[in-house]
Amino acid sequence: MSEKKFELHVPSVLGCEKVAMDFAASVAKAMDFPAERVEDLRTAVAEACTNAMEHGNKLEPATKVGVTLTVVDGRLQVDVEDEGRGVGTVKAPDIDSKIDGQGDTRGWGIFLIKNLMDEVRFESTPEGKNVVKMIIHLER
Amino acid sequence: MAKAQEITVRQAGDVSVIDIKGDVSSTTGQPIEDAYHKVTAAGTKKILFVFAADCYINSGGIAILIGILSESKKKDQKIRMTGLTSHFQKIFAMVGLTKYAQILATEDAALTDF
Lengths: 140, 114
Known about the structure:
The structure holds two protein chains of two kinds.
Chain A lengths: L3 E8 L5 H14 L4 H22 L7 E9 L2 E7 L13 H5 L9 H8 L2 E6 L5 E8 L3
Antiparallel strand pairs in A: 1-2, 2-3, 3-5, 4-5
Chain B lengths: L5 E7 L2 E7 L1 E2 L5 H12 L4 E6 L4 E2 L1 H16 L3 E5 L3 H10 L6 E3 L2 H5 L3
């Protein structure tokens, strides 16, 4: 099967991640992903975009988050790229300590992405941009 | 881009029911916290969150709910949730929210033996 690429750029404005998640979901549906997996993808893409907006682009409205979907051989790769204004910290969240009031209640985005996608990589480009590469397979 | 949010509070016996329609995120969490604080100020010990089927819930919204559950634990309140799609039931279990709030399939089930 030949590779197909789809690209979208959204402004770093919270709420716009929903456009990206619907974009990814429409491609996954066209690939006949099961509904449950499409929902997993929607959440993972929304979280990756939100992280890119908040941490990578510092919510500067003039910056963009790039979303590239690559379809090949029963898998969908989603690359989410920021403009490298900063990097978020990655610390495994713990519900019990958060409920007990220790630390910020936030910090679940990367946890969800890792648990919902089949493969996840965090990379940096030579220009200093952060890229989250997520792969979801048609057959899990 | 956020869907219009509508938060309403009603009473079902001794249970305060908070209906949530629209987005549940960091930018839309305040009205949910306000509703929780309103029923808490009224002295309720049992709270049921009813989510509309098309709610968009992200990690920022989950953080809001964790904050409420943290406060409810200190106040010895009991929290239940219903209306969540199977996807968000899975997400809530994944995060561990289900250790602190029981999720039930229907409002009737949630109100039974609360």
